[in-house]
Amino acid sequence: MTSPTLGRQTASGGPGFLKRSQPRYGEKAIKVLLVAASLVSVLTTIGIVIALIPPAADFFGKVNFGDFISGTNWAPLFKPPHFGVIPLVTGTLMVTLIALLVSVPLGLGAAVYLSEYAHPRVRTIFKPILEVLAGIPTVVYGFFALKAITPLLQDIWPAGDPPQVFNALSAGFVMGIMIIPTIASLSEDSMNAVPRALRDGAFALGSSRMQVSTRVVFPAALSGIVAAVVLGISRALGETMIVAVAAGGRPNLSFNPLEGMQTMTAFIASAGIGDLPTGSIGYQTIFAVGLLLFVMTLVMNLVSIRLVRKYREVYE
Q: Is 231:187 a contact under the CB 8 Å cutoff?
């Protein structure tokens, strides 16, 4: 039988009894803001697709898709016009490949050093300096490639014809320097997330620091490293100013990086600021090339998501 005292304690919320929790309006507001931030990204992507599809559909109503995707001559503003996009795709992939050959080894090397070798004080100094490269305007990188890297390559070229004034090699090299911070910073964060116990266990078995870095930490952080590299590739594919300034503005179906090339983004930029009448087929090529670039990036990200999920390690 409940005593009157216990009943009074229950009614008044006395000691030993739980009070009803107060509504957490601040937490709900934060949740709403986070959901809104996520929706902005999703709606922006949907808006881009909606903006690209109608003009691209009008373009493909006039131009055969097979000729567009497999043609080797890109001259949409000439008479007669040619709409083979392969030269633009080749230039884009060529510059991106050169950029990856520069950024992936240097970026991962910097990440391994900062994560496994550098003293904490050195890391706090070097990492912000490295990330400053990501804040430099890309047009500055473009003029650096044109006025510094290209003349340097022409002076030291050992044999054969030197690089042309506009060439894919210098554009790709400088673009690789630009995306080093992206790969290095994200990869280093993934390596730091690997539990210390894995390192200690490997050291206890007699492993060297290099063996721990390459055979323990690197495989354990592989999903994050893959995500960093894919983000770097996406930025290289979408870069405009470096290739517009340093690689040239002439479509060129060539696998020689010493020659000038035009990428998909450079064409979009040059055509977009021209005097093309709205609704003309020349104007619609901008959206067709943009849609193709969007699809290429989407496919690459879908593949990367599968790789990240496959190699993801979860630690408790």
A: no
